[in-house]
Amino acid sequence: MLLSLFAWGLVHGVGPDHCLAIGALAARGGPREAVGLSLRFGAGHALVLAVCALGASALGVVIPARWEAALELVGGVALIALGAWTVGAARDVDTDAHAFQGRRPGEHRHGGHRHGPGPVADVGGLAAIAGAVFGLSGVRGLVLLLPVALQGRVALTALAVVLFGAGVMASMLAVGSLAQLVASRARRVEQALHLGVGVLSVVVGSYWVVDHLGS
């Protein structure tokens, strides 16, 4: 029963909106950056799901379907914003790719000079915030997934939520690593890939908004 929640977490983590968001963030750097950004996105996502779902379960709060639809709209808007950011940053991909090559841990380059802590520090906070925002719309679904047998059993409910979150983080880590691998194997067309992911994020986010406006 509890392990089924881990499996549901794996499935939840590979939703199309999540994959696009993580791909937009993780494809820009190397394998280490992809892991860091994916974990930050997954941690922000899982933390919001855990806190809100446990709170709702403990207080016996029933989350209305219209709230979930409204939060899906928020997720759609966030995906549009992330896609627009990716498109805007795509023109700097060639410069970034050169900066990542041969740099020491904790630094990157601008104009041939080494600076700062690198891409994880640059967008790590963004990844965590984005993961948290995307997590809001999944709270109601997680509460509904929690078995009736767990109601009133705080420790088991908490364990179930943790297992779900672990599944989410595992699948998001896999998605981020795959996105980075694809990008690293296609450096010559990386700018086009970033533009494609960005545009697709805007399109899917717009559909998400329009679809949930009518629900």
What would you say about this model in short?
The protein has 215 residues and is mainly alpha-helical.
What is the distance, rounded to the nearest whole angstrom, between the alpha carbons of the first and last residues? 32 Å
- Please count the beta strands (DSSP E, at least 2 residues each): 2
Q: Which structural class do you get from the secondary structure elements?
A: mainly alpha
Q: Which radius of gyration do the C-alpha atoms yield?
A: 18 Å
**What is the number of independent domains?**
1
**Strand order within the widest beta sheet:** 1-2
Query: If you average the pLDDT, what whole number results?
Result: 78
Task: Give me the number of helical elements.
Answer: 9
Sketch the major β-sheet: 2 strands, antiparallel
Low-pLDDT runs:
100-120
3D architecture notes:
The longest helix has 31 residues, at 154-184. Residues 100-120 have low confidence and may be disordered. The protein starts with a helix and ends with a helix. By secondary structure, it is mainly alpha-helical. Strand 1 (108-110) and strand 2 (113-115) form a beta hairpin. The protein contains nine helices and two strands. The chain has helices spanning 2-13, 16-26, 31-59, 65-89, 93-100, 119-136, 139-145, 154-184, 190-213; strands at residues 108-110, 113-115. Helix 3 crosses helix 7, helix 3 runs antiparallel to helix 8 (154-184) and helix 4 (65-89) packs antiparallel against helix 6 (119-136).
